[in-house]
Design goal:
Layout lengths: L19 H12 L2 E6 L10 H8 L8 H14 L10 E7 H5 L5 H14 L5 E6 L13 E5 L7 E4 L6 E3 L2 H16 L4 H14 L1
Parallel strand pairs: 1-2, 2-3
Antiparallel strand pairs: 1-4, 4-5, 5-6
Helix pairs in contact: 2-3, 5-7
Length: 206
């Protein structure tokens, strides 16, 4: 049904303007029933502020033209509709403390970003847990993973971030491996309430 659909979605306006992988991420997220992510350096795209996202895209090598930076920022903000409002998707985010302490865009931008993330964690459909430095070594270090759960298991998809665009996996074995990896990463994390306290504490320190 997804392959033969004729209905237009918001991300279609970016077709031909951004790499196809960016549009594929939107489609995977849109049709998911639950999303689980893990980040160790960056914060989840679904909860990035406009200025934080712009600071990230300004660091792309080779440097992007200003128009493409703004297109990517607008696209990233458009993705966030699935996590806010009626019919919002269930979301679980696992974030290492190192990602919370990165100051992309400077201290003020970082502080506003962390406060925005803490506010997002108050939503009923959003759970954010933090792996603290005190946890020491942990499974999945250095990885950035998005696991989108489909309406049936055969539609589950994993998206991995790379410096040159997203990669996707949907075969049974890698899906099972990434589910196990995310479970192990979550076991290393603090509770949701303690994690929110860590986020707000770091925001005050900056």
């Amino acid at each position: 049904m997804a392959r033969t659909r004729t209905a237009k979605h918001w991300w279609d306006e970016y077709r031909g303007k951004l790499p196809d992988g960016f549009l594929d991420v939107c489609e995977v997220e849109y049709y998911a029933t639950r999303i689980r992510t893990a980040q160790t350096v960056h914060l989840p795209g679904l909860f990035q502020t406009e200025e934080h996202a712009r600071a990230l895209f300004d660091l792309v090598v080779p440097a992007l033209p200003r128009l493409e930076v703004e297109l990517r920022v607008a696209h990233r903000l458009g993705r966030q509709a699935i996590s806010d409002g009626d019919g919002s998707i269930l979301y679980v985010g696992i974030i290492h403390e190192a990602a919370l302490r990165m100051q992309f865009g400077g201290r003020d931008v970082a502080r506003r970003q962390l406060n925005h993330l803490a506010e997002a964690a108050d939503r009923d459909n959003v759970t954010i847990v933090v792996i603290p430095f005190s946890a020491g070594s942990f499974h999945g270090a250095g990885q950035s993973i998005l696991y989108a759960q489909g309406v049936v298991p055969q539609l589950d998809t994993v998206q991995l971030d790379t410096a040159y665009g997203p990669l996707f996996a949907d075969a049974a074995t890698p899906l099972a491996n990434y589910r196990s990896l995310l479970d192990l990463m979550e076991e290393s994390a603090l509770s949701a309430s303690r994690s929110q306290g860590v986020i707000t504490s770091i925001a005050r320190e900056i």
